[in-house]
Amino acid sequence: MTSAMTVPTMLWSTLVPLVLLAPLFSIPRHCRAQVLMNYSCNNGSSYAENSTYDSNVRAVLATLSASTPNATTGFATASAGRGADTVWGLALCRGDTDHAVCASCVAAVPAIAFHQCRGVRDVTVFYDRCIARFSYGDFTARPDNTEVLMVSPSKYQATVNAGHFDALVTRLAGALADWAAYNSTLRYAAGVMASSDGFPSTTGYMVHNIYGLVQCAPDLAPPACRACLQALIVDMPQAFGGRIGGQFNAVWCNLRYETSVFYDGDPAVRLVASPSLEGPNINGSTTLIIGNRRRRPNAATVVVSVLAAVIIALLSVLSIYLWRKLQAKQYTADQDVEAGSLLFDLATLRKATANFAEVNKLGHGGFGAVYKGFLRDGEEIAVKRLDKASGQGIEQLRNELLLVAKLRHNNLAKLLGVCIKGEEKLLVYEYLPNRSLDTFLFDPEKRGQLIWETRYHIIHGTARGLVYLHEDSHIKIIHRDLKASNVLLDSSMNPKISDFGLARLFDGNKTASVTSHVVGTLGYMAPEYAVLGLLSVKLDVYSFGVLVLEVVTGRRNTDVFGAVEESNNLLSYVWDHWVKGTPLAIVDASLLGDGRGPPESEMLKCIQLGLLCVQENPADRPTMLHILVMLHDVDATSFAAPSKPAFTFVNGGHTTGSSSNVAALSLNEVSISEFHPR
């Protein structure tokens, strides 16, 4: 008996090491277990088993499972039911995934939906090779990454020169985002950043290559895809901070990087990092691929492959079980952290600002004073402190907190948190070292620092921020107080729209409404709003047009330009030169100091665009999306001819077209808010 068992025992002892070392490519990819990355059970509402909603969920998942793998883009949406029982769904397979693996991945989604997220009406599942979501709301009509966004940083960190490592990751992600948005119909790109320097990690080995992957839903337009990915890229340093791996799991676009290859196929982008920290060299899709020798499998190889498949399947089941238990705990913890992440302690903010010392005061607005501060980790912040004598009060703070906390865009000032303690009411923002646009534009000494390229960049970035508010955000917002002092500038002079205390949330189906409480800043408000209380997105368009003309001329809209009645404010001044055929005469003289001046075509385009935005009839003004397209258009000859602007200006202490509503208006530097729910 002993001798009879010797051969199988020896065979087993020989095969086990081979099984454990067997390469995964010996097993067909569609036979591998799907790797669950994360999932989100939004417990806002639930449904009963065997209910109509339950049947619709199963129908949607079945449709996605059948249609997604067969779609050329690996992307599909579906809906089922009607009324309150309607279910909308979406599935997307990774761009390097074949049909078989895609089918296997999407088919694994119900295991999470009907077990870990049993009865939940809004579920998102992230596998390594695919994502899927279903919900009771039509999220497919409003692409918004912030509805479901889960961050997964690596536990390992690059221990030397983490800042350089982060910069390389950001450059790689930016190049991949450009490629995915503008060069790929799948909205997918994978690539590698090679560094000759290397980075020692906490695991003890040197990191030389950084591999990255980005993807958007294929039905996103290129600019929308690029903007979606940019919002993730901006948050990368804070989310991952020197870590050698990380990923943003989200529905409409996602991003991942590692220090080992995790995708299939050739990289679309290959970058080489210079040791001198100069920008990487982009070599397009050039890459070195080393092929593997292929041999005809023999019987031993088949046995090893089969045993490998069995053991790996068992290990995968065990891993998924343990992973799910860990994720359930992690999900609960993450929810708790997110709920409290916006709250700041008053003692922390007092310490950060040296008890609101005058030396740290950055400025003063209608809300109150703004102070610079430093948190314990060295992060710079800007703290807006409600002035106890301010007329804007808790309503503006509440409005700003509720709106801005939901917004994520590179051209919007980022709200970090809030503190309400007794009479102290404070908002905490990211610190922007160059403060606001007006501190440069209307200062005779600083104005010269705003070369034309910078001004055009500010105009373009502000337009992008407004397009997001009006079109791309999941909530439609009218800012109502766009002006030079509410456009902040970061260290690279990138514009960020701030101060949402007067912003108005708009029903996506409405185009206009009427309010009896007119608020805002004189000179930037459209006449139909200032006089009649008519509120629409064209109010922001008008304000943007005034801002553009201020940027071009370097003059405030309330400046007096002469004794002639028709030309006593900025808009009439610009219009007079436009009809006379001398529009370039209005250009800021500081732009002409180098003898070359700005590009004449761009100047004329911005002047014409500004005049189109301030036309008297709101219907004649372009939308912000149209404005953004015009800014990208090299040829302005196709633009419509502007009509005479609507003049709302100070004249002997009165406002043209004044009415009872105008009492709520304010001077250029002060915003007045209403005290009614929006």
What key phrases describe this protein's structure?
16 helices; single chain; about 675 residues; disordered C terminus; 25 strands; Phosphorylase Kinase, domain 1; 5-stranded antiparallel β-sheet; Killer Toxin P4, Chain A; alpha+beta; disordered N terminus; about 20% strand; 4 domains; 7-stranded mixed β-sheet
What does this structure look like?
There is one protein chain. The strands form seven sheets. A seven-stranded mixed sheet has the order 6-9-10-8-7-11-12, covered by helices on one side. A five-stranded antiparallel sheet has the order 1-4-5-3-2, with helices on one face. It is α+β, with helices and mostly antiparallel strands and 678 residues long. The N terminus and C terminus are likely disordered. It is globular, with a radius of gyration of 29 Å. It has four domains: 114 residues, Gnk2 domain, C-X8-C-X2-C motif (Killer Toxin P4, Chain A); 134 residues, Gnk2 domain, C-X8-C-X2-C motif (Killer Toxin P4, Chain A), CATH 3.30.430; 85 residues, Phosphorylase Kinase, domain 1; 225 residues, Transferase(Phosphotransferase), domain 1. The chain contains 16 helices and 25 strands.
Provide the fold topology:
Elements: H1 6-21, E1 36-46, H2 52-67, E2 75-80, E3 87-93, H3 99-107, H4 109-116, E4 120-127, E5 130-135, E6 149-153, H5 162-183, E7 188-200, E8 206-216, H6 222-240, E9 246-250, E10 253-258, E11 269-273, E12 281-282, H7 299-340, H8 346-352, E13 361-364, E14 368-374, E15 380-386, H9 393-404, E16 415-421, E17 424-430, H10 437-441, H11 452-472, E18 476-478, E19 487-489, E20 495-497, E21 504-506, E22 512-514, H12 527-532, E23 534-536, H13 537-553, H14 570-580, H15 600-613, H16 624-632, E24 650-651, E25 654-655
Parallel strand pairs: 7-11
Antiparallel strand pairs: 1-4, 2-3, 3-5, 4-5, 6-9, 7-8, 8-10, 9-10, 11-12, 13-14, 14-15, 15-17, 16-17, 18-21, 19-20, 22-23, 24-25
